[in-house]
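Quick log. Single chain, no ligands specified.
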Amino acid sequence: MQRNIVIAAVTAAVLVGGGTATALATTGDDAPSTAPRTDDDGARVTSVKVSAGDAVASALREAPGTAVSAELDDQDGDDGERMAWEVDVLAGDGTWHSVRIDPSTGKVLGSQTESEDDTDDTAEVRAALKGTAVDAAEAAKAAAGHGTVTSVELDDDHHGGGRAAWEVDTRTSGKAEQDWRVDGRTGKVTADRPDDSGSDDSDGSDSGSDDSGPDDD
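-> predicted structure:
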């Protein structure tokens, strides 16, 4: 495998009495980049022009049904795929569609039809949807006040006290991703906390954890 060797020579201005020169060499194979990607990735995510709700609307025009999840895939893959919204849609006949949406234009980049082999999973999703009055786009809009929505997904396991809900992730530039729960009936937004944090956390009250949710919103 060809090694990519980059040699950079930096020469300082010559001062009275002499000067200095420094040569730096690194190898692409042996020295992986350690540049902080968090800020750059956050800037990319928060600069998208198409919101989660708009991506869902575009996906439903391509594949009618009910949007069950939408996620912003912000990692450019080795296969050349660019950043895109990935929206999963459950059609009325039980067929699943995965639709990719351009986050800059809202255009459909591609759509795949997937057959759900596990009918029990589909049944659980349908049962969860029956208990909701808030759809994916509305849940994303409800949580958008906390930052740029990067994903919204139906909680078909009802781990938040048995109530139907949407799990939403948001991102703000320079900050870590934050998790929220949007009540499937009322649209109320609360900070999402781990199940093992105790039953007292289920109502969204402050448990003293620094990463449980923002205090400045």
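Residues 1-38, 195-217 have pLDDT under 50 and may be disordered.
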